[in-house]
C-alpha cells in the first residue's frame, strides 16, 4: 500500500484535528489534553509511546503556527522563551523515553485521573482559568523584553512541564501559561505567546526522540492527517475566541473531560 493510499485511510482524522485545534485555541490551552484521550479510545491497542508521538507532532504544528502569529504581534519574550525552552528539553527527552516503560493500562489510569483533576479545577475555578487565558485582562503595553522574572523558578517550572507534557503527549500549554501568570507575574498576553514558543520547541524535541527510536514511524500518517485539521481549526478558534468567551465554555470543557476520563478509566480496568 503506497503512502497516499495510507493517508486516505486516515482522512477522517482531519475533521477531528479541526475540532481539537479550534476548541483548544478557543480556550487558550492547546489541544493535546483533548487529543490524547480521544486517541486512546479510538486506538485501544496502540502503545502509549505511539499515542504520545502522534500527539506531540500535532502539538508542535499547532504551537508553531501560533508562535508565528505571536511573533508578528511582537508578544514573545525571547529571553525567557529560550531559557524556558532549554529547561524543557532534558525533561522532554526523558519523558519521551519514559513513556515506553509504562504499560498501556497504567498509562490510561494515570491520564484518566489527571483529566478528572483538571476537570475539577476548571469547575471550581472557571474565572481564574479565563484570566489565565486572557479573558478579563487589559492589554499591557510594556515591551516583552522589559519584563523581569525569577529565572530559576521559571526554569524549574518549565522542566516539570517539559517532562509531564512529553511523557503524556498533552502539550502542557495551559499549565505553563497559568504558572507564568500566577507564579512569575507575566502579563497574560506575553505568557501565552511565550508559552507557545516554548511549547513548539518542547514538542519538536519529544517528536524527534520518537523519530529516532522508530516509534513515530507507526503513527506518522495519522499525525499528518490530524495536523492538517489542527492547523485549519486553530485559525477558526482564534477568530471565535473574541466572540465566544464565557464561563460556559470552561464548564462544557470540564464536562467533556469527565466523560472522556471515565471512558479511559473503564478501558484501563476492563
Keywords:
0% strand; mainly alpha; single chain; 270 residues
3D structure, described in words:
The protein has one domain. 76% of the residues lie in helices and 0% in strands. The protein contains 12 helices and no strands. α2 packs across α11 (220-240). The chain starts with a helix and ends with a helix.
Q: What integer is the average pLDDT?
A: 80
Low-confidence stretches: 129-142
Structural class: mainly alpha
* Count of beta strands: 0
Number of helices: 12
Radius of gyration: 17 Å
Strand content: under 5%
Separation, N- and C-terminal Cα atoms: 34 Å
**What order do the SSEs take from the amino end to the carboxyl end, as H and E?**
HHHHHHHHHHHH
**Structural shape:** globular
Number of domains: 1
**What composes the largest sheet?**
none
What percent of residues adopt helix (DSSP H or I)?
over 70%
List the helices and strands and how they pair.
Blueprint: H1 3-9, H2 13-27, H3 32-42, H4 48-73, H5 78-98, H6 104-124, H7 126-132, H8 151-168, H9 173-182, H10 188-213, H11 220-240, H12 247-269
Structure at a glance:
By secondary structure, this protein is mainly alpha-helical. 76% of the residues lie in helices and 0% in strands. It is built from 12 helices and no strands.
